[in-house]
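Structure (tokenized):
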């Protein structure tokens, strides 16, 4: 299979969606893609074990994309070789009453992974400059000072939020969080096919909601706001990758390879063993063996 370099999909602002492919049309069997993903996933799992022992870093993976872009299945496949305790997935839904009593970043901050672990945000703080921007009436639920009606929303609030998100991500990276963000770039036609599949397969009917069609009608708005959000927040310390997502298997492989490339920049290593332990290993072994 042709070697694909994930660096080719790393976003350097300005981000223009049309310049990024939604399908690489790689001529390789599904089995070969699965095998390649399995190899990369195992390497990631090994790195996570070292990172856990090192206890200095944690990793935040941000996944964003239009409906049906494949976020759930990607998470399942990319992290399947991990120790279950090594990765925590958060799927952010509509904010709860409690969450709305805090600022919009609060629920994301408290969901950050512990040192040594991976955290995956299935949708994320970026919903607050995407969905909320397409539906500005949602902003009223936050009870922000001076905003009683949609017409009260200041024009610069979105750029304020870009700055706030950048500050948030810079803060956590300075404290040991490695942030890697992925936009799963699916074509409108592929989304149509996947929505149809949900309707045609009885086992997938539960995935469909009439609201999916309402949001699909706003496709162009979402694309515009994705461009603006990613252009303003793809930074060296928290990069965005625009991943071709029409081919789910290839998308999973590209995400896994991109994560591996980013983590290989770090020298994760196990802590040095206590000298007393080293000097007395044989003593400890004999003591345990004698119990048998």
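Design, position by position:
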């Amino acid at each position: 299979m042709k070697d694909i370099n994930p660096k080719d999909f790393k976003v350097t602002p300005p981000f223009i969606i049309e310049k990024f492919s939604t399908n690489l049309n790689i001529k390789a069997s599904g089995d070969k893609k699965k095998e390649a993903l399995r190899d990369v996933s195992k390497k990631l799992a090994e790195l996570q074990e070292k990172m856990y022992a090192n206890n200095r870093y944690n990793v935040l993976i941000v996944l964003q994309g239009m409906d049906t872009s494949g976020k759930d299945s990607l998470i399942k496949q990319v992290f399947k070789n991990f120790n279950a305790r090594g990765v925590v997935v958060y799927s952010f839904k509509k904010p709860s009453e409690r969450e709305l009593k805090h600022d919009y970043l609060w629920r994301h901050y408290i969901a950050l992974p512990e040192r040594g672990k991976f955290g995956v945000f299935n949708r994320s703080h970026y919903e607050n400059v995407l969905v909320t921007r397409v539906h500005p009436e949602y902003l009223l639920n936050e009870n922000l000072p001076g905003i009683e009606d949609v017409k009260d929303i200041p024009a610069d609030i979105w750029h304020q939020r870009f700055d706030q998100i950048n500050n948030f991500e810079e803060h956590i990276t300075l404290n040991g969080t490695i942030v890697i963000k992925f936009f799963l770039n699916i074509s409108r036609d592929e989304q149509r096919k996947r929505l149809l599949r949900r309707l045609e397969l009885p086992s997938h009917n539960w995935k469909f909601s009439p609201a999916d069609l309402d949001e699909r009608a706003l496709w162009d708005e979402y694309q515009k706001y994705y461009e603006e959000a990613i252009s303003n927040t793809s930074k060296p310390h928290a990069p965005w990758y625009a991943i071709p997502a029409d081919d789910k298997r290839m998308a999973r492989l590209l995400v896994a390879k991109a994560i591996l490339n980013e983590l290989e920049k770090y020298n994760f290593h196990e802590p040095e063993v206590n000298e007393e332990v080293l000097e007395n290993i044989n003593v400890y072994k004999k003591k345990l063996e004698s119990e048998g």
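Reviewer-requested clarification: The chain has one domain: 6-291. The chain has a mean pLDDT of 94.
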